[in-house]
């Protein structure tokens, strides 16, 4: 059934791509006029440079390659694929979604870490090769991406199809941080009955609209900071309440004293205690629903 996600689903998703998460049903920082402005305010003092606390894996434990996993309008979707070096059979798949900086070294490191945990991890590139190293450029890139959300939707759907059809993954989940957190939820909304699990790290735009969230059939895990303003703790509480009211399988965590981007060791808001606890919870969640879905 998974392999039947072809042209019909792709065409349908093009029609709904712009409506998955939008300002009318999402949280906004009060002082910000747009999602990109909200992210820019939160990251104005950040730098996407890996610090010594960034954890990587032994390069001998994983294999990596740059791959093309689809095309749209003759423009390819390219990403970064990582798998355990000793993999002898198809493994659960993960769609790994970048922060607002793009598919940079930090996201590649996280992709290798996920692979080392026993996953075929595909880091998608929502910026088509562009990467920012400062907030001004990141804001420009994220604005352009948001304005072309149809292509982003097609990107994540192509990633799903690639993992299922080319990598033969028996299950597929999504995980993303910041802008990627929003798009982890968007991936779930684009594949409401196909995706097996979704992990959201402080996604700025989280829908609180019951009609939007009602189709979701997969378990959802979310990690948010109590000091964050995009989304605010109040919005996260509503998000959790709506999911619970809809009887969804949702694990939503709020980390006291943690801010937006608390899990990014290359940023200025890194919170080691919160990040390590969130990682433990993420691994337990993914293992439960992707490694042993029965």
Automatic annotation (TrEMBL):
Q: What is this protein called?
A: Dienelactone hydrolase family protein
Molecular-function GO terms, alphabetical = hydrolase activity
Q: Which residues form the signal peptide?
A: 1-21
The record's listing under InterPro entries reads: AB_hydrolase_fold (IPR029058), Dienelactn_hydro (IPR002925), Dienelactone_hydrolase-like (IPR051049)
Provide the Dienelactone hydrolase domain boundaries.
Answer: 77-290
In terms of superkingdom, the source organism counts as Bacteria
Per the UniProt record, the source organism is Leptothoe kymatousa TAU-MAC 1615
Q: Which UniProt keywords apply?
A: Hydrolase, Signal
**Keyword Hydrolase in record:** yes
Q: What Pfam families does the record tag this protein with? A: DLH
Coiled-coil boundaries: none
């Amino acid at each position: 059934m998974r392999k039947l996600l072809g042209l019909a689903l792709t065409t349908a998703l093009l029609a709904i791509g712009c409506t998955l998460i939008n300002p009318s049903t999402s949280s906004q920082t009060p002082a910000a006029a747009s999602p990109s402005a909200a992210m820019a305010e939160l990251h104005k003092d950040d730098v996407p440079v890996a610090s010594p606390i960034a954890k990587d894996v032994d390069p001998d434990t994983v294999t990596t390659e740059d791959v093309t996993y689809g095309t749209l309008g003759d423009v390819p979707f390219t990403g970064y694929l990582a798998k355990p070096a000793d993999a002898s059979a198809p493994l659960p798949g993960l769609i790994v979604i970048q922060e607002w900086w793009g598919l940079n070294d930090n996201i590649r490191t996280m992709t290798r870490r996920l692979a080392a945990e026993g996953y075929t991890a595909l880091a998608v590139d929502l910026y088509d090769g562009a990467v920012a190293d400062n907030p001004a450029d990141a804001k420009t890139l994220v604005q352009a991406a948001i304005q072309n959300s149809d292509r982003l939707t097609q990107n994540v759907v192509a990633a799903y199809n690639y993992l299922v059809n080319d990598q033969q993954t028996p299950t597929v989940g999504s995980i993303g941080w910041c802008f990627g957190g929003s798009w982890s939820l968007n991936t779930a909304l684009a594949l409401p009955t196909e995706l097996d699990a979704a992990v959201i790290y402080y996604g700025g735009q989280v829908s609180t609209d019951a009609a939007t969230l009602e189709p979701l059939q997969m378990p959802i895990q979310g990690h948010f900071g109590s000091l964050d303003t995009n989304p605010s703790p109040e919005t996260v509480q509503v998000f959790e309440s709506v999911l619970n009211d809809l009887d969804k399988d949702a694990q939503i965590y709020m980390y006291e004293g943690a801010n937006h981007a608390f899990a990014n060791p290359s940023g200025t808001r890194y919170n080691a205690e919160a990040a390590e606890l969130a990682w433990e919870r993420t691994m337990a969640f993914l293992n439960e629903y992707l490694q042993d879905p029965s």
